[in-house]
TrEMBL record, chains A, B:
Residues 8-138 form the TsaA-like domain. It comes from Pelobacter propionicus (strain DSM 2379 / NBRC 103807 / OttBd1). This is TsaA-like domain-containing protein. Keywords: S-adenosyl-L-methionine. SUPFAM superfamilies: YaeB-like. It comes from the Bacteria. PANTHER family: TRNA (ADENINE(37)-N6)-METHYLTRANSFERASE (PTHR12818:SF0). Belongs to the tRNA methyltransferase O family. It holds the Pfam family TrmO_N.
């Protein structure tokens, strides 16, 4: 059994008008606003090749999530039967990583405007990846 | 600037015939084999609702990757110009998280057979998410 652990260091922070989990839609395409990413300047070099119009996958650390939960009601709907967290996109899970597909709207140095994004204000960003064509892996 | 750090605890391990980074294709759909996931039994309850035929996104910790690199040659091709790691799917990046879309082939308790998967043998698994329909976020 794998009992090692690894340290994640945020590369930046999400700035959003969404201030609480309650305000945030379940997914970006469900009415989420635009947001700014403030990348820590030491990582700005890693953005080379990204420009407005690119589709990206952001990986965040959902810092308000519970890590001790293995069953949830899907889509926060108490009338739905409990499901395993790995069968849902609930933020509550052992390693609360968020996956968000966004479009780049503007880049200004180490600041990136993206949308739509359902992550709340202050969410740490841990990775950025290009969206691959549908024929490749997600 | 965000200077906190967070601890990732693997939920399981990938078992694959791929033993080195050199053997592994860049993406699962480029000829990767099937693999077994051994989930740590304490997390097995979180799988409820997942069955053979489901498409999942696995998030792994690419334990052989370099974390001190911000520019790479895309697709390990030295003839291609250097690009920022966030514009590529290189395993080398500040937080070496891997994203892998796979199909569930078989579930046997806390063991899951999936494919195709380009992660190498011994790679720690950190999260499992359902693939959302194309209209939702990746």
């Amino acid at each position: 059994m794998n009992k090692d652990s690894y340290e994640i260091e945020p590369i930046g922070t999400i700035h959003s008008e969404l201030k609480t989990r309650q305000e945030a839609p379940n997914q970006g395409c469900e009415g989420a606003p635009e947001a700014w990413i403030d990348l820590n300047p030491e990582f700005a070099e890693g953005l080379e090749g990204i420009s407005a119009g690119c589709d990206l996958i952001l990986i965040t650390w959902l810092h308000r999530a519970r890590r001790d939960v293995l069953k949830v009601h899907p889509r926060r709907d108490p009338t739905r039967p409990l499901a395993g967290v790995f069968a849902t996109r609930s933020p509550d899970r052992p390693n609360p990583l968020g996956l968000h597909q966004v479009r780049v709207l503007e880049i200004n140095g180490a600041r990136i405007r993206v949308g739509p994004l359902e992550a709340i204000d202050g969410t740490p960003l841990v990775d950025i990846k290009p969206l691959l064509p549908r024929s490749a892996n997600a």
